[in-house]
Amino acid sequence: MARIKLTIEYDGTDYVGWQVQPNGVSVQQQVESALQQLLGSPVRVHSSGRTDAGVHALGMVCHLDTQRDLPLSAWRDGLNRFLPIAIAVRQAEFAADDFHARYSAKGKRYRYTLLRDDVRSPLQRRTSWQVRQSLDLQLMTLAAQTFVGVHDFAAFRTSGCAAETTQREVFAVEMIEEGRLLHIDISGSGFLKNMVRMMVGTLVEVGRGKRPPEDVAKLLKNDRQIKPALTAPAQGLCLLEVWY
User: Fold this and answer.
1) Which long-range contacts (CB under 8 A, 24 or more apart) does 163-171 make?
2) Best label site of 53, 96, 199, 225, fewest CB within 10 Å?
3) pLDDT by residue for the chain (244 residues), tens digit each?
4) What pTM, to 2 d.p., does this model score?
């Protein structure tokens, strides 16, 4: 029996998310379908986590167990022959028997991309959130540093989050300008449902002058008098990498 680790890139625009769901086609469903075509029998993959409908990934990690003795090139190139154009296996590796895509993970890094422009961009529409108003990066950076550290992120999750605890550690929040684009890179030990999108939505409100930077600290203390965090649209979010 061999354990195979796959690193997968996908455009999540047309999928209901990573996880198999009854209301549409998921990325996991497509990966498992490709595996069945490659191996001739059903296979279940275990991922490092979930991404919501419309969210993308450059480095989603999953693993599977198999008795088939295939070279790594077959796990990558063979699977890619059966996968739709929006999904690709970037890397295939043999993993230790005790490796688990989810439970062995030490951290993740997400990138949220904002398009700062009055005119829509047909080329960026699937991978960014268009923000027409000017943003105060100094205030956003100040607010972003409040997220760093171990906090209770209960105010930064949506209903349906099944996490047993809402305490998470954020390692860093970085602002990276690239012309009209503003990338917000957020790394941490793990994330709650819609946590990154709500963090970004709050930072954008700070940048627009619609809430003060101090609101972040109040939200982290579950201050009920503070306006709830805004959830940024799904299409701007991408899972960049998972650390082990």
Assistant:
1) 163/192, 163/193, 166/192, 168/192, 168/195, 171/107
2) 225
3) 899 999 999 999 999 999 998 889 999 999 999 999 999 999 999 999 999 999 999 999 999 999 998 999 999 999 999 999 999 999 999 999 999 999 999 999 999 999 999 999 999 999 999 999 899 999 999 999 999 999 999 999 887 776 778 999 999 999 999 999 999 999 999 999 999 999 999 999 999 999 999 999 999 998 878 889 899 999 999 999 999 9
4) 0.95
Structural domain harbouring 22: 2-95
Same structural domain, 13 and 116: no
Q: Are residues 156 and 45 in the same domain?
A: no
Place of tokens 């579950």: 222
Residue 170 and residue 136 in one domain:
yes
Would you call 136 helix, strand, or coil by DSSP? coil
Axis-axis angle for helices 195-207, 137-145 (nearest 10): 140
Q: What CATH number corresponds to the domain at position 214?
A: 3.30.70.660
Q: Are 232 and 132 within one domain?
A: yes
**Binding site as annotated, residues:** 110
Last residue of a domain, one of 75, 95, 115: 95
Given the residues 52, 65, 136, 152, the one annotated as active site: 52
Please give the annotated binding residues for substrate, written as ranges.
Answer: 110
